[in-house]
Structure to design on (413 residues):
């Protein structure tokens, strides 16, 4: 990932104010100045045009899927007279969900959550609240994981009780399914949402180092829960396949059973295998995505050159404000000792924001040099406008500081 080669004329002159955010939190700066980009990892998106288009297409597709799921759920409940939960029978567990109905309900919640998150990004709501945006991005994932778990367990619970006495397939106690559903439905969101909320709170409070640790813990915990869900789906799917295969073998050896039943059972077996395969693939991809986000997030924190020109502009504005404040306060002092102290403070402020360069790409260096020239010119203009009657003195003081080696330098890492 490299910085975008944008001209300085496209840089905004009035940055969005930073409210309750530490000026040294890199990720929050990227989050606020790149509205349509992921605020954890900025992937070469200039002004957000590409991400605007992606979010618009995604919003449209999610709306279609939401209407389709709602229509299918209405058809199942009102027309086919299906129920959300199956009636309890002797020896069964406390939770007996019907697979299709419960899956549709959870997926509708997931779709609505994603719609809300994309809508917030599209209209740029809560621009200075990392807590709200982080929570809106994370909480719908729990609904999606829960929907897959309820579908797998609901399908598994359709097996008749009389098959418990068979040596093959072996079936555990119903309480195992109850525990699995409670863990996925209750424990998973409580743990992940707590970490997400805590991460957003500490970032809004300015503790970016603690936020980095918490966001890594969030990805690790989410990977664990997805692994747990994948193992549960694989286990219950295997048991369903064993039951269907047992019925197929019995039907083939029984002469009074119609051939259509065998064909239907074989078709059902293929569908279950296909669904179990999709669940395993989806869980594996989710694990890889979480680990990739965690790795990319760490790389972004260690590599400021991955930020775009707008991100550099935000840093330059912060430097301009700091330099302006120091220059204004410096004019009120008359003795040499106070001037030395103010100069030392300026050097400390500059050292906190300095970038260290290790790449020698001519294109990147040219882009950074353009931003550097723009920032210097803009800083001088601000000082001349603010200090009435002392314009020449301000420019001379700025030039003297440059001769002493205190001019601001941006270098790319």
């Amino acid at each position: 990932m490299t910085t975008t080669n944008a001209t300085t004329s496209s840089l905004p002159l009035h940055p969005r104010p930073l409210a309750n955010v530490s000026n040294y939190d890199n990720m929050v700066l990227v989050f606020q100045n790149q509205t349509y980009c992921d605020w954890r990892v900025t992937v070469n998106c200039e002004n957000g045009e590409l991400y605007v288009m992606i979010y618009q297409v995604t919003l449209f597709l999610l709306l279609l899927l939401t209407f389709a799921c709602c229509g299918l759920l209405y058809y199942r409940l009102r027309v086919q007279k299906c129920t959300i939960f199956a009636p309890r029978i002797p020896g069964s567990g406390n939770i007996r969900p019907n697979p299709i109905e419960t899956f549709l309900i959870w997926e509708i919640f997931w779709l609505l959550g994603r719609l809300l998150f994309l809508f917030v990004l599209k209209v740029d709501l809560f621009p200075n609240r990392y807590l709200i945006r982080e929570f809106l991005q994370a909480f719908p994932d729990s609904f999606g994981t829960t929907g897959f778990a309820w579908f797998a367990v609901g399908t598994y619970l359709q097996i008749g009780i009389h098959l418990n006495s068979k040596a093959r397939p072996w079936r555990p106690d119903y309480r195992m399914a109850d525990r699995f559903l409670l863990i996925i439905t209750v424990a998973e969101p409580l743990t992940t949402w707590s970490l997400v909320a805590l991460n957003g709170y500490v970032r809004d409070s300015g503790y970016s180092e603690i936020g980095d640790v918490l966001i890594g813990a969030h990805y690790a915990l989410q990977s664990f829960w997805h692994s747990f869900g994948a193992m549960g789906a694989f286990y219950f799917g295997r048991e369903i396949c064993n039951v269907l295969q047992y019925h197929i073998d019995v039907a083939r050896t029984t002469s009074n059973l119609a051939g259509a039943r065998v064909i239907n059972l074989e078709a059902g077996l293929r569908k279950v295998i296909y669904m179990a395969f999709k669940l395993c693939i989806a869980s594996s991809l989710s694990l890889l995505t979480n680990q990739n986000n965690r790795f990319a997030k760490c790389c972004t924190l260690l590599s400021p050159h991955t930020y775009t020109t707008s991100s550099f502009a935000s840093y330059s504005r912060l430097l301009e404000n700091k330099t302006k404040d120091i220059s204004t306060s410096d004019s009120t002092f008359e003795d040499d000792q106070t001037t030395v102290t103010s100069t030392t403070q300026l050097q400390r402020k500059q050292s906190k924001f300095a970038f260290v360069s290790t790449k020698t790409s001519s294109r990147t260096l040219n882009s950074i040099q353009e931003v550097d020239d723009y920032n210097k010119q803009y800083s001088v203009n601000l000082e001349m406008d603010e200090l009435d009657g002392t314009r020449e003195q301000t420019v001379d003081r700025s030039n003297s500081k440059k001769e002493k080696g205190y001019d601001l330098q941006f270098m790319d890492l």
